[in-house]
Amino acid sequence: MVGRIYMSLCVLLLIVIIVSMVYFVASKGIANFISGEVKVSEFLFGTKWAPEADTPSYGALPFISGSFLVTLLAALIASPLSICAALFMTEIVPGWGKKLLQPVIELLSGIPSVVYGFVGLSVIVPFLRDTFPGQGIGVAAGALVLSVMILPTITSVAADALASLPQNLKESSFALGATRWQTISRVILPTTMPAIMTGVVLGMARAFGEALAVQMVIGNAPFVPRSLFESASTLTSVITLSMGNTTMGSTINNALWSMALVLMLMTFIFVLLVRMLERRNKI
Amino acid sequence: MKPKTADKIATTLIVFFALLIVAILIGLLGYILVRGLNHISWDFLTSAPQKIRAGGGVGPQLFNSLYLLVLTLLITIPLGLGAGIFMAEYARPGKLTNFIRLIVEVLSSFPSIIVGLFGLLLIVNYFDLGFSLISGAIALTFFNLPLMVRITEQAFRTVPKAQKEAGFALGLSKWKIVTSVLLPVALPTIITGTILSAGRVFGEAAALMFTAGMSSPRLNFSDWNPLHTSSPLNPFRPAETLAVHIWKINSEGLAPDAIQIAAGASAVLVIMVLLFNLLARYFGRFIYRKLTASKRIN
């Protein structure tokens, strides 16, 4: 009986945590909109972030677009790599392929994000600076660092999906005389696509919320980037940099909380997407 | 193109990309270890960092990271076990259970910076615990708890049904079955998962910047009374961890050897995570052998 009460309390605590998290972040995040200091449209679509100017403007579009840009780019780079790795593990050499890649994936996901940031700063940034125009720091560097960070997420979900595919689907395709690639491209990938997309969305969710590694390599300029090799900012990077330097309750500070609210809403959207994809996958 | 040729090309590409990922990992680890290892010395691991001069170490940061990890696990393990066992054994399928499952999912996919900001708002400011180890530990709890719940639930679900049925057949109560039949079988998986999650907690920085703080006070390592302000064990002092330190010196480091310190600290961090990984494997097997009278492992 005592055990049962204790366990129910633990679960209750989870509910309390999440409800208060949503409540606190949302109440701080909409404070500016309620007091009328910043309009929602100005915040979401304004391209000018100048909170310290004489007529301050709080347009967060540079950061929102920066977040989406690096996230999409990272997913575009990481997805093909991850799907190939998953195919390698399950279809090409199921035995030692899994033995080789499984620990690799686990180690990649274990490396802390600040270490990714550090390596990005000391390897990727100088490389980009020498090969392409610009300073090296910028959208491309951010996307590259993020793509390595989300490789393990996509790969492990995709590998699980491929491994759970019924064997007879493959066998009947081979029996019809299809080559391995024909089987993979016409049978295996189309059937497992919703599950693989789940992995991609999970990876994007991770990329969207990643803060420190991106902040270290993206350059943190408050403009909408016009090229991949230009400095930009993301929601997370501007929060990381500015939250400590602003006073609680000021308009700038509340604008940063609004950005946190955007991040939170995006998390909900990602979770919703994952749930929808999973439901489609069941049928 | 003939199907055979397409097959050959596709296979080559897939193998190439898969091996590329292996190469990325080897390059990454090689770079971190080669760059960092020659900067690591006993002095580097134990001395305090320097602000402007060269030659600082990461002693307090390393200690803070480990201590914070212990504090976090002290809070999350009992809570995670409780909620996880409830989800696996007691929760009836229905709306409420689905809702709780959704909550665990959402909580585990929140960006860690949101967790840190929430910690700043609620623990640091509202509960007035300030930038302190305990604030950091509570924030990391929000971050780690959903993981613990999931690990526990999955570990309990993999226990063969027959074990539970045998318990019921003997007339045991549900609680007795959970504690003396299911828990020992599930424990190795739980321990492995916990140590792996510890690796994640150890490397976490974004959630800690706003809760445990970005500075470390002067510590007196001969004073082990947790109530003294300069004691390393005092949970109410601010504490910069290793991961936060790496971020800080990369973003605003002033010491001339900042880049070497970052390399050394990164190597220490990665070695610790690797150790956690190895430990998780080894310890899981060891416990399994101890608790379940089985001489062979799968």
Structural write-up:
- The complex is a heterodimer of chains A (283) and B (298).
- Chain A is mainly α and 283 residues long.
- A two-stranded antiparallel sheet of chain A has the order 1-2.
- In chain A, helix 4 packs parallel to helix 7, helix 4 runs antiparallel to helix 9 and helix 11 runs antiparallel to helix 12.
- The model of chain A has no long low-confidence stretch (mean pLDDT 87).
- Chain B is mostly helical.
- The longest helix of chain B is centred in the N-terminal third of the chain and has 35 residues.
Quickly list its features.
A: 283 residues, 12 helices, B: 298 residues, 11 helices
Task: Describe the SSE topology.
The complex is a heterodimer of chains A (283) and B (298).
Chain A: H1 2-29, H2 31-35, H3 40-45, E1 49-50, E2 57-58, H4 61-92, H5 94-110, H6 113-131, H7 139-163, H8 167-175, H9 180-209, H10 212-218, H11 235-242, H12 251-282
Antiparallel strand pairs in A: 1-2
Helix pairs in contact in A: 1-12, 4-5, 4-7, 4-9, 5-7, 6-7, 6-10, 7-9, 7-10, 8-9, 9-12, 10-11, 11-12
Chain B: H1 3-37, H2 42-46, H3 59-90, H4 95-109, H5 112-126, H6 133-157, H7 161-169, H8 174-203, H9 206-209, H10 242-252, H11 258-291
